[in-house]
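Worked example

This section walks through a single chain of length 311. The input is the sequence exactly as stored; nothing has been trimmed or padded.
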Amino acid sequence: MAAASNVTEIIFLGFSQRQNLQKVVLVTFLLMYTAIVLGNGLMVATVLASKGLSSPMYFFLGYLSLVEMCYCSVTAPKLIFDSWRKRKVISLHGCITQIFFLHFFGGTEIFLLTAMAYDRYVAICRPLRYTAIMSPRVCGLLVGAAWGGGLLHSAGQAFLMFQLPFCGPNTIDHYFCDVHPVLKLACSDTFLVSLLVIANGGSISVVSFAGLLASYALILHSLRTHAAGARRRALSTCASHLAVVALFFIPCSFVYMRPCVTLPADKVVAVFYTVVTPLLNPFIYSFRNTEVKNAMKRLMGRKGTWDENDR
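Given that input, the structure is written out below as tokens.
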């Protein structure tokens, strides 16, 4: 790539060139990123330190919080740093590296959400065999498969980008590097590469989303025979997971499951799956779960009370 490219750096336009608005962006995203690190970090520490949170659901939740922190850290610190700089640049190799890690953690999150849906399906539809099916070994394999799937996905995206020559221009109307904006800078025919990019990202999204829909269709069908109290608790747990899935999948589908064109709304939509979802994840899962809240209180040295009716 270096021999075929004249471009050595990429320039971001960011959200705005106006100084006053850039200060607002700086403060807003600094506060949001701090909340993401603290909130998800607390979730990871709580799951690791609390013996009462040893079920597979919390095992997956701890890894999800870890991935959320890493995922947001790929773009947010660079955005915050650039907000007080007039010239927002990144090296070409740094740009490809950002694409790699963005899709690595994003792909891993998709597979983790799918594994969590399978866990809820087994817990609700196969309760008598839940412990045997969701053994520690199986949970470890599912998490390992999620990391491996994310790695394969991101390696494919980065490899496609490395094959392209970049001769200029070198400015993208975004605040981080992603495949669609970078493809527009290539000085060669990118039709085939665009198809491969869509096939790579689209196949993962479609298959995972189909798996999620199938899991929850079976869950809803099974809940018809459950008692009202059990049905309410199961639906509450599933609602939290579905909220995270919707916040992540809908914006990602808007950006990646379409022809490789960029739209003015892409920057705003990207904020939802790179910042808003990691920010809301701890609130959605912890503040509606008494067991997690009590574990957090014990972790911070306070005594928590267990209300059986709030489980």
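What to look for: The first strand starts at residue 9 and ends at 12.
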